[in-house]
Design a protein that fits this description.
Layout: H1 5-11, H2 22-29, E1 40-47, E2 59-62, E3 74-77, H3 81-88, E4 93-95, H4 97-104, E5 112-116, H5 120-123, H6 127-130, E6 144-145, H7 148-156, E7 160-163, E8 169-176, H8 181-196, E9 208-215, E10 221-222
Parallel strand pairs: 3-4, 3-5, 5-6
Antiparallel strand pairs: 1-8, 1-9, 2-7, 9-10
Helix pairs in contact: 2-8
Length: 226
């Protein structure tokens, strides 16, 4: 497979049999040079979980210490005074029955949906609309709660949602290539720490089996986090 110059510039420096310390990995990430757009830095963590066991599912959210370098369009399902509170906090749209009807009618021009606990019986009826898009509010992902303003602000600022895929791997953005080495390092360690803290009691053996970071246009770099 042919790759671009920036990909090859990093790939030729890699030892595919080596796991790199975070400091060294971040230097390699940034060694491909500048691009016309600010590349997203991704992390992939292979977990030692049984994906068929519901109690071992890994799903949640985390506010990275240095942010993600991007913003998200957030809508808030809420009622009463919370509607204006959500809008003041930066919600693209906020409402109760009217917003439920709008989304049920096919409007999905947003990135994250949050909901107050009281609204979930109504929002639950949108499962067939929001579920396939990964937009259904859930307590596990931090998108359901009582403090609608905090949820809106955090997710609008790039709070990261994550869940394991069918292969037991968690993927997430952890910054931009323009971030300083120190900021990328802090975000990587914070994300890995969050995943490590979620180890299900029923798992056996090594929980975090492999961690790889990469830029959108670069090769994967395996980390040594033992």
């Amino acid at each position: 497979m042919d790759h671009g110059k920036r990909y090859n510039a990093v790939a030729e420096k890699l030892d595919r049999n080596k796991s790199y310390e975070v400091d060294e990995a971040v230097k390699l990430l940034k060694s491909g040079g500048a691009t016309k757009f600010d590349q997203t830095v991704q992390i992939a963590i292979k977990l030692g979980i049984d994906v068929k066991a519901a109690e071992q599912a890994i799903r949640g959210s985390v506010s990275l210490p240095k942010g993600t370098g991007s913003t998200k369009r957030v809508v808030a399902f809420c009622q009463g005074g919370d509607i204006q509170t959500a809008k003041d906090a930066g919600a693209l749209e906020a409402g109760a029955d009217d917003l439920v009807a709008k989304v049920n009618g096919g409007w999905l021009d947003f990135d994250v949906a949050v909901a107050t606990t009281e609204m979930m019986p109504k929002v639950g009826r949108l499962g067939r609309v929001l579920g396939p898009k990964g937009l259904m509010p859930s307590p596990k992902s931090g998108t359901v709660g009582k403090d609608v303003a905090t949820m809106v602000r955090e997710f609008a600022a790039g709070k990261v949602e994550f869940r394991n895929d069918d292969g037991g791997t968690v993927h997430a953005p952890i910054g931009k290539a323009s971030f300083s080495e120190e900021d990328l390092k802090n975000n990587i360690l914070a994300f890995v720490g969050r995943i490590r803290s979620m180890r299900p009691a029923s798992t056996k053996g090594v929980f975090i089996q492999k961690v790889v970071v990469s830029c959108a246009m670069g090769p994967g770099i395996r980390l040594n986090l033992s």
